[in-house]
Amino acid sequence: MSEEIITTGAERRELISFRVGEQEYCVDIMAVREIRGWSPATTLPQSPGYMRGVINLRGAVLPIMDLACRLGMPVIEPTVRSVFIVVKAGDRMIGMLVDAVSDILSITDDLVQPTPDLACDAVRSFIRGIISIEGRMISEISLDRLLPEREALAA
Amino acid sequence: MTRTVLTVDDSRTMRDMLRMALAGAGFNVVEAVDGEHGLEVLSAHRPDVIITDINMPKLDGFGFIEAVRVDDDYRAIPILVLTTESDPAKKDRARRAGATGWIVKPFNPEKLVDAIRRVAA
Amino acid sequence: MDELEAIKVTFFQECEELLADLEGGLLAMQDGNDDGDTVNAVFRAVHSIKGGAGAFGLEPLVRFAHVFETLLDAVRSNEVPATPDLVVTLLRASDVLADHVSSARGLGVVDEAVSAAMAAELKACTDPNAAPAPAAVVEAPVFEAAPVAAAPAEALIGADDALDDDDLGFDFQPMTITIDEQAADVAAAAGNVWTVSIRPKSDLYRKANETALLLRELARLGPIEATLDASAIPPLDMLDAEAAYATWTVRLETEEDETAIREVFEFVDGDCDLEITRGEGLSADAALAALLAGETPAAIAAPEPVVIAEAPAPVVVESAPEPVAVAPVVEAAPAPVATPVAAPAPVAAAPAAAAKTQQIDVPGPGQSVIRVDPERIDRLIDLVGELVINQAMLAQRVGEYGIAPSSNLAMGLDELEQLTREIQDSVMAIRAQPVKSVFQRMPRLVREVASMTGKQARLVMDGENTEVDKTVIERLSDPITHMLRNAIDHGLESPEERKAAGKNPEGVVKLAALHRSGRIVIEVSDDGKGINRERVHSIAIKKGLISPELQLTDEEIDNLIFLPGFSTADKISDVSGRGVGMDVVKRSVQALGGRISITSRPGQGSTFTLSLPLTLAVLDGMVVDVAGETLVVPLAAIVESLRPKPEEVRPLGPVGSVLAVRDSFVPLIDVGLTLGYREASPPPTEGVVLLVEGEDGSRAALVADAIHGQRQVVIKSLEQNYQQVDGVAAATILGDGRVALILDVDAVISLRRREPPRPVEPTLIAAE
After folding, report:
1. SS3 assignment, position C301
2. With contacts defined as CB-CB under 8 Å, which chain B residues touch C156?
């Protein structure tokens, strides 16, 4: 009965949380296609530093993004625990390189708080909101902003 | 017993229209794309009634009707010709060739089935 | 009405084909090939469009097609001579017809004034004696076709509700038949008795009509009594099986009028003597009297029981309310008497045959076509691409184990490779299409451009059946359009200039497609004045595109027109202008791995040559190592590969160097540096040089660290999940499963020209 009361206000969603450096982030599970172990990527010339390159994902060319670098933190040194999370962002699929996957969260939207003002603009545009759960602070990634517009970078 | 109608027309649209109308009225439909093809299909399917266009490549409607009428096996099969408008000259030529009756395009399914009934035993 | 909508889709598809046939036929006539077959095919195309349009109630299309068809009918029966002028008119009419089709399809609007003027012109051609009438008046007679065509498709396909409820005549009709306006004789009330006397001629039977069926039809109008007067039947030994002797007298009680009765005999008009009188007819009485008197004419004339036993004449048929029930009774009667013996047999046999017959979609003679969703083929091609990659990966793994090439395993792998290639070729062949679909659109373009520029141009096409992958077909249309526009606008002279030069005032533009060394080549040539090299050269200098000191060959001068910012037209014309110069065309062609060039002969014309790969799905490339990365260089761009000797490398300026190749100097470009893979170039003599030729013909020496050899690779898009990357044409997947980038040679050359090497971002190095 109590659970029904919780879900009346908002839809229950599931999120996958992961670690980038010392911080925790998450994305909606509906956007996640798969999680794969790290494998070396082919470097892309003329690309921003957060683009690790491209890998072969069952015949498709998948760009790999260093999420730490994208969020303005030091680049990730890949280890055996490093993984990339394959997500669908708009009509594109990208792999996000993260340090480790933590767990799956089940939340309602009323647990999501707006991103505080003190965060820099770059970070704020990639963060959909902040979730406070069991004393942890988890930032939800806004996937549609992660990759640059196709034309913007080609110039 | 389901009756078989052979439609001979080089226009896919017209063949489809005929098929829709005839199949809807319970006829079995076989098709040919010109007169020559019509003669081939004729021997394979022995239709009860033939509906043929006049303007066709290879063998036109007139030639097709004449060819059907000189064959003892097929001479008694009623043939309806499709005419776009009541062109008396064309109609007369088709009749001289041996056409049993005619259908003026565009036809409605009723008119078509009616014409078949009038010539089919 | 789903089925009807589906047929409508078919109709418009067919229209496209018919319009292409029409234009093709007219162009053949223009080339002097106006034999009967061509004219007939042209006529049939318009006729079929009209027929289908009528079925869908597409009035404006029907009306225009009708006028067009009428003229074509006159042409094919030689009433109107097919002069060159007339064929030009017919071609223009075919354009208007195409507009009508598009409009009926909901894709565009017909210019009513143009259409009306064209219709008037066609009518004037059909009947030269008729005074040219203003368009509005001309429309009127065209409407003749309208009553037939006017009914919308729903009404035609639908049932009685399509009929006019106010017309009492229809309310009683058990069948829908055409009826004269004044026909509904309401006064012909119930209980009217008619006498119908039918005397069939032999022609009636020759056309597979039957008196029995006529009687059956009469019975649908009301109760009948039919009497056969067989007095005219000769003795059996004189009986002509083909002839007709009997006379039927029918007493009919019906509420229908005479028109309805005559309607029954519509198909046998002229094939029988028909008398229709109101009231009890005399002939029936006479026959009856004869019967009563025992003078059975048939019995007397033909004493043999063969004839009379089954058909005792006169036969009286009681009309049953259901025509179906009447039929068998009537059927038996006339057959032995008058109907040729052969007649009923096949009819009777037919149902048996019909029972065995399945409803089969009969394909055209000699052609069997399977329709496949293109997406399925695309998927198949993708899968075969995967197979090629997997096979390469497998071969590489096996190679790493050091297995001898003569071993069974290695030989089996070779066979697998062979098979894989064959499968790939076959699958690609499925998707290959003739360039016809693109070429078909060009005659109209040529006519329009010619009329816009005041030129006279005739298009000659060759190699329309040349096949190329679908991925390329879709990209051909734009460059061909531009080349043709350019050829007419800039290549051809005005008719006056041509006459003055002793040429035919009508210029010829040729569009040809052919296969040459694994590529498709499209040539657009004209017989115009050729390129004015002096002018082109001075414009290029004036616009600062080339240095005045530069010595150029004729060919190099011709190809200056592809330089960005070059336009020879003093004023930007409507036609070639449009803000799109040949430089843009060239760039888009290059993006597809293609080349375009022009050659010209003064006074004799110019030829554009466009070459493209046969497919954009696979590519032949050279696999090279650059700063630890594996890259693929398109083979088409490579002239040769060489190891430079120290004396061939000459420094030029502070950082640049050139390579001496025979007697020319070619700029050396370190690919690793240009793409930002490294910050300093190793000496070129330690690496390998690929001498490449850019699409503009300029050469460069690309420095790589090592060459791995040639390979056919499957092209993978970078843009699908990322975006275009400068210097990279696409990606592929190599035997080891890793992604390799395919180099965009032209972009690398221009990157090197444009800016000094960019320092590599440290993060990228850290990533490795």
Report:
1. helix
2. 106-108
C137's tokens: 């008046």
Out of A49, A56, A154, the one facing C738 most closely (by C-beta) is A56
The residues that bridge with C689 in the sheet, in sequence order, are C642, C703
Q: What is the CATH number of domain B4-119?
A: 3.40.50.2300
Residue C525 has a pLDDT of 94
Q: State whether C768 and A43 contact (CB < 8 Å).
A: yes
- Which tokens go with B59? 């063998």
Q: Give the distance from residue C104's alpha carbon to the nearest chain B alpha carbon, in angstroms.
A: 15
Euclidean distance between CA atoms C321 and C78, whole angstroms? 54
* Token representation of residue C158: 């639908």
ipTM here: 0.85
pLDDT of residue B45: 83
Q: Read off the tokens for C660.
A: 């001496």
Contacts 24+ apart (CB under 8 A), A37-40: A37/A80, A37/A82, A37/A83, A38/A78, A38/A79, A38/A80, A38/A82, A38/A83, A38/A84, A38/A97, A40/C738, A40/C768
Neighbours of A, requiring at least 3 CB pairs below 8 Å, are C
Contact C157 B108 (CB under 8 A): yes
Q: How far apart are CA C740 and CA C533, in angstroms?
A: 44
Least confident segment among A103-112, C298-307, C407-416: C298-307
CB-CB neighbors (< 8 A) of C343 in chain B: 75-76
Please name the member of B32, B73, B114 whose beta carbon is closest to the beta carbon of C346.
Answer: B73
Residue C161 has pLDDT above 50, yes or no: no
Chains that touch C (3 or more CB pairs under 8 A): A, B
Counting beta carbons within 10 angstroms of the beta carbon of residue C662, is it exposed (0 to 12), middle (13 to 18) or buried (19 or more)? exposed
